[in-house]
Amino acid sequence: MKAENLHCIDQEDMEALLGIAIGIGLSAACGFRVFVPLLIMNLASLSGQLHLSPGFAWIGSYHTTIAFGIAAIAEVLAYYIPLLDHLLDTVATPAAVVAGIITTASVVTDLSPFLKATLALIAGGGIAGLVQGATVGLRAKSGITTAGIGNPIISTIELIGSFFTALLAVLFPVVCLVLTGFFLIFIITKAGRLIRGRRKKTET
Asked: Given 30, 64, 99, 153, which residue has the most CB atoms within 10 angstroms?
């Protein structure tokens, strides 16, 4: 009896950990594009590949497929329009944070409501915001150095990153979690160097 209980606990813990890994991966994908990961979540749920938490069943409906599909296409195309891509960045940043919170909360199970909300806000929203901030900075730098000519290339890289990160999160969540961790370390390290460089300039 005790062995069965331990097996159940281990299985529940594994499901919770996998849910966290999937949520973090999808949140990172939302930092690249808001609606592409949500569309992949929807299709994965409809195919039975992804199980959603209670209260988030609406993500796996056919009506949501149409809504997310239209929104994803519009978002992708808009980033290839000059000037509009910079305007979208101001809207996409808070939207990415919200999407990161939703994706994490929708796949994390077997946690108390408080822990789930905390994890969704800090991990989901925080990671999506960090990735989105990095892409905004990269596009701004591209706009200055290439006069906007290189922005379509940046947009394509972001789209590919969003698609494959979301796909990897659903199919291989642990691998995606590790790669996301390395990417976040790179972003934080890069940001730290920029801050130190600016401080040195102001001091001199």
From this structure: 30
